[in-house]
Structure formats: C-alpha cells, structure tokens
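Continuing the series of single-chain predictions for the mutant panel. This is the parent chain; the variants come on the following pages.
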Amino acid sequence: MSSSSETLHVVLFPFMAKGHTIPLVNLARLLCLHRNNNITVTIFTTNPNSAFIRQSLSDTKASVIDLTFPEFTHPEIPKESKVQINYHHFLSFASLTKLLQPEFDRILQSLQPDVSCIISDVFFPWSLESASKLDIPRYEFSGCSNFTVAIYDILAIQEFPVDSDDELFSLAPNFPDVRLTKNDLEPEVIHSQPGEVTDLFTDIYSATSNGNSIIANSFYALESQFEDYLNRKSSCPSKGLRNTLGKTTPKLPKLNKEFRVGAIFLKGPK
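Parent structure:
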C-alpha cells in the first residue's frame, strides 16, 4: 500500500466445507484486527453456510454476502448436498460451483470501496476469470499442505514411472526421499477419464499457473523444502507470510507471482 490512509478491500471466498472455511474465517479475523484500520473485509458464501460464518465473525467488522446456488440436477448429487457434502460428491459438486459465477461477478463489480484483491479457494478456479475481468489480483487459497501441492505439481507434468498401482516410486530428482504408490493418490488422478472431474483438475491447474499467488495453510519451518520448490517455479522468491500473516497481508495486491504461506488456524473460532 502506498499510504496508511489508502483503503484496502479484501474479498474472501472459502469453499463450502468447514475444513476450507475455518482457515479463511480466521484470516478474515486477522485482517480485521490489523493495526491498519483502513481494511475492508468481505466474505462470499452460500445460504446454508452463512450462519456459521456470520456467527464466527459477529464481533468483527467483516461483511458477509450470501450467494444463491441455482437449482441444478445431477445424477449423483442429491439436493441436500448443497448443505452437507460427502467425499463421494465433493469433486462433482466443486465443478458445479461455476453456477455461482454470474451472481458473484455482478456483486463483485458493485462492491465499494473497489476490491483490492480476491482470496478464493482452490476449488473455485473460475474466480480467476471473474477477477481478471475487473483487473483484480486473485490469490488462491490452498487448504492442503505445500507437500501435497508440490507432489501434484510434479505428477501433473511427468508420467508415472511405474505401471502397478502398489509399486513404490520416488519423486526424484526433486524429492528423492519421497516414495509413493499410485494407491496413495486419488483414483481420479491415477485413472483420469474425460468428464467433469478431469475438467475441474485441468481448470485448477491452469488457474494456479496463471494466478497471482498461493496462500497455504502452513508455515516455512514445517515444509521448507516444498515451499522452496514451489517458489523456484514462480517468478519471485517468497519471503513468507508465515506467522506474521496478519501484518503482511495488506501488501498482497503488490505481489508478483510468488507463493506465500501462513499459519491460519484449523481450529474453529470460539
């Protein structure tokens, strides 16, 4: 930021599952408690998840906007999955969240003050398009570890070195000490088939590659080699948000492509 009087408007958009929502709710709290009082925080969510977020942030100045999930029909997803999502439906449901984009785009454009940056979940790759339309930086929130992100990055650009699903292979030359089998990975990754899930993973990888940065729920001392790997693939080395996340986050809109990490609590707010 150029001065302490400049207003920073941060939009957060967590995925509709508690493990994805809680860290960004805590990030919203950190931003609201920041010593710079000129920070506006807006959180987008859907109606079934709104009460939890509003209650969690009731003692802050954060604003919560509810998006209405359009009616949809899907052969594998019952309507109640909009409230409770199990793993069997997770990836298909994540693909359907693109139905939220028209309303999200419309409200995003109308927000005041103007939005400085968007921090949205990895499972909302379409939000990069929404942000780009308005020339807003979009930062991807990754609720998983840097270890996981690094592994999938490697596997996305190289062939599996083994044929058997239970045969060990290493991630040399990057991580020769890491040994996995195909069975350690999601079936959708090992035996990908054309369809909505494969399209989702393709969109996620594209959005990650073309976005501004990743904010990971981790810290450097825990996963230094994996953060270093990710930063070597970006245009700028990371200095890390880490445990000072609340202090350095207001500088996010000035970042070029780089990876940042910060310990955002997994435990739910009291």
